[in-house]
Each structure stands twice: as C-alpha cells, then as structure tokens.
## 1
Amino acid sequence: MVFMKIIIVLFFMAAFFFHQIAYAQEFVPNYNETLVPEYNLPKLLQFSNGEPILSIDDWNKHRSALKLNFAQQMYGVVPKHSIEMQVIEIVEHQNALNGLALQKQICLQLKQNDHSIMLNVLMLLPKTNKKVPVFLGYNFYGNHTTSNDSSIFITNNWVMNNPDLGINSNKAGSVSRGKLAYRWPFDEVIQRGYGMVTLYYGDVDPDFDDGFKNGIHALFGNERDSASWGSIAAWAMGLSAVMDYLADDANVDANKVAVFGHSRLGKAALWAGALDQRFAMVISNSSGCGGAAISRRQYGETLARINTRFPHWFASNFKKYNNNENALPFDQHQLLALIAPRPLYVASAVDDRWADPKGEFLSAVAASEVYRLHGLNGLPVNEMPKVHCPSMGAIAYHIREGKHDILWYDWQQYLNFADMHFR
Ligand code: GCU
C-alpha cells in the first residue's frame, strides 16, 4: 500500500517535471507585431459596475477595489498581521567613495514569533546637513556586487548561481565584489545631490520555488490559498519595510524617495509603488511581463511562460489566465494608473523584445488618462518615441539602444526626471 502510494507520488512528480521541461522547450515567443492578437483594454475610468469615474474622489474609491483585484488575482494578498522591525546595527563610514559620500550599512531585523530575517541595507549619501532625496532599489546578487569597496558586507543568504560573477553553489563571495558596479553609478548620483539605497532582494525572499517556507513568507505562517502572495509581493513588502526605516533616517528626505527596479525587480518596484503611497516616484526599468507591459499583447514573454518558469512569483490564481489573457479583469496599464498622480518612469531597451518595449510604452500611454483626471499631463506623447529620445511629463518613457540591463544612459534620464519633480 505504502509502496503504491510512493509510486503514484513519483509518477505525478515525474509528469509535472516533464511537463515543465516540455513547456520550456516548446515556448516560442511571438516577436511579430502583426501576430499580436486584437484586444480591448479594460477601461480605466469606469467602476466595475460600468458607471463612469468622473472625479478624483470616484477614482480613489475605485482605486482600492482595483488594488484588491490585482492582489487577489495576480501578485497575491499579504497576510493581515504585522511584523516587528528592529534596527540591529548601523555601521557608518564618513569618507566612502574617496571622501565623496557618507556610507551607512543598516541591519534591519524583521521578526514574528520565533522566525526572523535580516535585511542588509546599503546607503550612499552626499555629505550635507540637509536631508536628501534618495533612490531605493534592490540588487540581484548582493550589496557587495554594486561596488569595489571592500567594507560592503557580503550576504549569507542564497544567491542565484552565475558563472560570469563567479557564483556557484548559491553562495556569494568576494569574487563577485564590484562585478555589477556599472549598474550603480554612485559617484554621479551623489554629485547630483541624491542618495542611493540598495539591498539584496534575496535577503527578503530567495528567488526560487521553495513552497513559501523561507524568506519573509516564513514570518507569516503556512496557511495559504489560491490568492496568497508570491515572491513579487514579498519583495514589494521588503521595499516598504525599508521605507519604514527611511522615514526616520536623519539624512533622508522621506517625502522624496523614488523606488526603482530592473526587470523582475522592476515588477516588484511597480507593485510596491502601487501599494505604498509613501513612494514619491516609481521607476520601472525593463519590467516587462507582469510589470509595465500589456499582458493581452502576448508579445515576448507571456503569462503562461512566466507562470511556468517562475511559479512562485505570483498568486496561484494568476495561472488561470495562462493562454487566457482576455479573461483578466485588468491589465498592466491599470497597475501603472495605481501610481497616479505620483511621477512614474517606464523604460525599455531595443534588444529586450522579451519584455515587449511597445507593450510597456502603450501601457504608459493608457495610464495617462488617470493622470489627466488629476490635472496632470501623463506621458506627453502618443507615438512611440525614437531611440534615445526620452519623453517626460508626470509619466516618462524612453527606449535606449542595447540589451536587457540598467545602464548609465538609463540613470541619466532618471536623474533628470528626479530633478524635474524633486527640485
Ligand atoms: C526572466 C523573466 C523576466 C524577468 C527577467 C529578469 O527573463 O522571464 O520576466 O523580468 O528574467 O528579472 O531579469
């Protein structure tokens, strides 16, 4: 009997495994604009009962329902009870970056009953007595990869293997120190009067499908249903936890915190910005499917593909929409609209077709309607701008040459956008 049960379980495990492999091999992304299906975007300025939204008050009423819908059907609902946060240690270095910057490394402990996690936050700030605006965003492989500065701590948490960075066995080490420094132009950001705050996303929730047993999920117990939160919602919560800390940091202007992220971390930044209105600006760098891009276009990465490859990113309800995008009760332009009226930047790269640059742009165009309701101009253009021709209103968009990455060109635009809205 027991033997039979083991055989049956093994059979199902093998079937699941081969299904995943087969799916991954079969999937051929559509990169042909003429094959994008016809679709109707859900209306932005309409209550779910069909009544029109005519005022900011109406929008705010609708906004809560829309946010809940995104949570239940896509990113997942976060458990209600709160967790404790404690600042364990702050290590300061007054002369970082050759004397240009104040560096702080803050160890935050998040705790619930007997479970706790530690977030290691790296801050680089201009040396001034004034409180400064900051950019807050995750890094992919640990704080130490952002700079050659040997005082930056190395995470003990699981990291994704990456032979190019010398990361094997899911363990970070000094070989990867500074390897991604090109993504973090600390000197230039500081010279422009901004601070930069970053942490490793795996400190909040390691990015693999572990059945939600580790990371921040573990602080909330094991009870789950089809609407429960996935990793993107967990990373969004981590950003809000850091915001809780920044609100009290003597060097930071907490009214001018721009949350940003590249790719999967751009998806997390958008969801964090939608949920937490303390983020005064939101920047999505190539966030693609499940981020800024319109899901109904099915261009590049699709819902079926993202849910199969990354089953832990979203609530399991989201899988209902695999190959069934038209059944979605919303689309990603509505996620962007949840950020209104705060300044929002959406950026793409030409060779990053997987993230559907046009879908990201169209989403920003559509979201502009809600900015206009707030008396703002949204994105100033309706036609996709040429490469390296950023367009900036309350919503900004650019597309740059090159691949899926966050580069100095992107940062230059984000700094200009911050100057436009924060100065
Ligand atoms: C994969 C994934 C994307 C994601 C990207 C990244 O390509 O399919 O959805 O944005 O990884 O995070 O780099």
## 2
Amino acid sequence: MENKNINEIYSLAMNEIQQSEDTNKLQELKIKFLAKKSVLSSLMSELANLPPEERKEFGKNLNDVRNRISEELAKKEAELRKNELDKKLKSETIDITLPSRKVELGGQNPFYVVKDEITDIFLNMGFEVADGPEVETDLFNFELLNIPKDHPARDMQDTFYISDNVLLRTHTSPVQAHVMQEANGKPIRIICPGKTYRRDDDDATHSHQFAQIEGLVIDKNINIGHLKATLELFAKKMFGEKREIRLRPSYFPFTEPSVEVDITCANCGGKGCSMCKGTGYIEILGGGMVHPNVLKMNGYDPDEYSGFAFGIGIERVAILRFGIDDIRRFYQNDVRFLHQYRRKA
Ligand code: PHE
C-alpha cells in the first residue's frame, strides 16, 4: 500500500516537473516533494510502523524516488535556465542586415582650417609651438615689449581691463617675452597661435576678438634676410608658388627695423584691381628685427644675439584664402556659412 503511494507520488512529481514552465514553479515543487514537511518526508516517518521485513525495501524505494525526483528537478531546472537564456539572447540580438544610419560629417570652421595650415607650414620649417596666457599683465603685454605707460602706440591697442595691471592681451607678442625669459639665453624658434582682444567696434573688418600667430627666432647672426626668406616661404606655401612678397618699412615699438609684409594680389596678379585698391599688393602681416631693448629686458645680450619676430592675423589670412567678406562670420556659427566648408563624406 505504501509502495503504491510512493509510486503515485513519483508519477505526480514527474508530471508536475515536466509541466513546469519556469524556475519559480520548480522551486515550489522542490518544497512540495522534497522539503522536511513534504509528502515523502511524512512517508519516511511511517517507516517505523512497518514490519521489519518490509522496512528495508520501503526505505530503499523511498530513497530512490527522492533521488530521482531530485535529479529530475535539477535536469528540468537546467533546461528551463537554458531556454530562458536563449530567449533573452534572441530578444537582444542585433540585426546586422539593417542598413546603418548615415553619419553626417561636420565641417571645420575655416578659421581652424587656416590656423592649422599656418601652424603646419612653420612646424615643417622647424618651429615649435609655444603658448601664453590670454589674460596678461601690463608688464608683458606692453612694458617688456618696449611700450612704456605713456607711449602713443598704446592708443591703438586699447583693450578689456580686468584691473589697472591685468588685461586681455592685445596681441600674441607678450609670448615673445615669456618665451625669452624661460629660454634662459638659449636660441629660440617658436610660433604661438592664440586669441587676442582689442576695444574695437565690430564691423566687416574689425572684431573685438580675433587671433594671431606670433613668430619669434633668436640666435647669433640672425638678420633681416632670414625674416624675408621665412615669410616668403610661408606666403608661397599658403597662397601659391606664384605669390611674391614685398616688405614695406613700418613701425612697431618692439622691432627695429619694422616691416609690413604684402603679397601680390591673387585677383589681378599684381597689376592692380579693386580688391587690392589698385596697388597690386595686399597686406598680410607685420614683423621686424627684435628691438635691442626687448632683447635686453628679457635676458639676451643684443651685442651677441639678434632675432626676428612677426605677427600674422589668422582671420585675415582666412579671409584672403577663402574670399570671405566679413570677419564676423567666423564667430556667428551660422550653419549656412559653415556648411560651405563641410568635408565631403
Ligand atoms: N604684435 C603686432 C600687432 O599686433 C604684430 C607684430 C608682431 C609686429 C611681431 C612685429 C613683430 O600688430
């Protein structure tokens, strides 16, 4: 009678295990059939009431069934877990046959295109890139460049003052003084691209914020021929091999002699047109031989060392290079303007 009972429990258990659809259900069955208060355990307590000759076999059957149910539970659990994993993997697969979304390539602002090109040209000539603060002291922006407090050259370089002695730099030239002081009398060959500021009313050709690339070379026996050759190479690389340059005498307090550098007009090739206002030339930068006072103030003996410096307006070069009509376009973030410089995918 008890054996029959065992067999019934066994088939019931097998049936219910087979029909379980998830691991939670299996957990319930485990409790129902194998736990302390399960039917099988209660049969176990009946063992003592049986005649001794039946006990052995009953006990063995009971154990067998227990083991088989337990095995079946484990098997089913593994099966269900595998199914659950398969289902999860399936629902998470990526359909690699779908066409990809089109990646829109952005465009570089032409300002940065030109800044990088100028930088590359000078790097190829052996210059290194130096850096300096945009928030400067009066000392570095003016004094150490031979522009004392009452110097009229300051009028053209009014700027944004943070305090009497701290201001937004009006040119990248203060980096000359920084680099000289840090170089401790060693030869120098650097450029410094960076932002500059002036108190200007914005219009097509003026902006209160603009950018320059400073150049500085200091060594023994540097002469104006080096300056001319360097800038000629720059002009040809930037604007084309046919371009000629012209040096015109000019004035900067920190260079002596000082020059403005013009290139032949791309539009007319030097004959004279409306773009170059009939002169055949377009001004692109200022430069000169580093003033002995500047050398002295920044740690170089002018009897032993000489050097040249120049400052290129980045927007000005970009305007000429791309035929841009208004300096404000570089800063307005108008996508119609920027799209014209988008790289093709
Ligand atoms: N700093 C000058 C300017 O902003 C340009 C310049 C640089 C001139 C270096 C001479 C030497 O106008």
